[in-house]
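Model it.
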Amino acid sequence: MAPEADSGKTRRIDASGPVTSEWLDAGDGHEIYVESVGRKDGIPAVYLHGGPGSGCQADHRRLFDPERFHAVLFDQRGAGRSRPRGGREHNTLPHLIADMEMIREKFGFARWMVIGGSWGATLALAYAQAHPDRVSGLVLRAAFLGTRAEIKAAFTETLPRFYPDLNRDFLDALPPDERAQPLDAYWRRILDPDPARHIPAARAWGETEQILSTHAPPRTRIERATLNAPPLPTTPFMEAHYFQNDCFMRPNQLLDEAARLAGIPGIIVQGRYDLLCPPATSHALADAWPGSEIRIVEGAGHLLYDHGVRDAVMKAIADMATGITK
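Modeled.
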């Protein structure tokens, strides 16, 4: 849930290229961009980006010590460099899980550590519950369980409580007769083929989500002058596709099936002031998942690049690797 912002801090970090990169034919007209870093005899790991729909960034490679890991990063269907860009046909959670299995088998990993934040945590949990014998450990950031209740809480309860002016902007971007059910209205409009409907809706949704995801946002209002200005990122469209379909899961699926994670060690990194994926969600998951722990990052919100979060994720990955190799 929410794109992983590429901040100025990201661009200043040395981001050398991957060891390997390629597009894998996943069928159904989809080609998945996959890259790897580290040593071929290193600890197998896979990184799952957020969104849905954002894509991996160069700095995500730097989360892994190249002397310890053989890490794989890929852009999920329709996201990043995968083709077709923004493609939503044959794009569901089961498709993404199948793509992960294709990638794992391609690299010859019997098991791998799975790392993901926000929507990446959703996919990591769903994959681990589908294939628990393939997962050596989980490192999650900002746990998101993919439920409508979580999205409703963020956009209809947290938003007006913390940003009343932004909430007014968010609702004003809809016709008055659609404001009673704003989530469904936004998703319908974002997925409407008419640019006059989907461009302003996608921009308003994306700007609101970005402000909610940032601990100290530089602005807290929607820039109405830009609502009709293309081009647009693919993330609002992919989110609308997934959220309108309840992320292609049964209600409460990830919590109901948390017992399938028994025996898989897990670390959940959680920003104390995350307004999109609040600590209560991580605690509910940890309560249902034996062998997991929560690490709270004080003073941080949702994003990987909030103060202290990236360092906490890197430490969690390193600590998990030490436990796996003992």
